TrEMBL record:
Transmembrane segments: none annotated. This is OsmC family peroxiredoxin. It comes from Nocardioides pocheonensis. The lineage of its organism: Bacteria, Bacillati, Actinomycetota, Actinomycetes, Propionibacteriales. GO terms for molecular function: peroxidase activity. GO terms for biological process: response to oxidative stress. It comes from the Bacteria.
Amino acid sequence: MTDRKATTVWTGTLFEGSGETTFDSSGIGTYPVSWPSRAEEANGKTSPEELIAGAHSACYSMAFSNMLAKNDTPAERLEVSAVVTFVPGTGITKSAITVVGTVPGIDEAKFQELAADAKANCPVSQALSVEITLDAKLS
C-alpha cells in the first residue's frame, strides 16, 4: 500500500476566496487555486480538474507502457494528454485521453487494442465515474 498526501488551505468564500494546494508527499511545490481559475480561465492557477488530468495522463502512460512491453513491443515514446471537462453546476463530466506512440514492431490493430485495454485498466480511469474517451495514434 502506498499513500500520497496533498493539502489545500482555503480562505474566504467559494467565489471570492482562494487557496493553495501543497504536494506534501513529493515536495514538488505549492500551487494557487481559486474558483475563477477553475470555472473560467486558469490565469496562472491550477484546479482540481487539471490535477486529475495530470494524474490521468501519468497513470495511462504507465499502464500503456507496461502493456506494450508485455506484448514485446516496448514504446520508444508515448505522448499522452488528458483533458478533464468541468461544467459549473454539474461537475466533472469527461476525461479525454490522447496518445501518440512511437512503437516499433506493432501493427495498428494491436496498438489500438492495447491502448483501449490501458484506458479500461488504468487505476485512475477506474476511479473516475465519468465518460472517458481515447484517441490513440501511432507516430
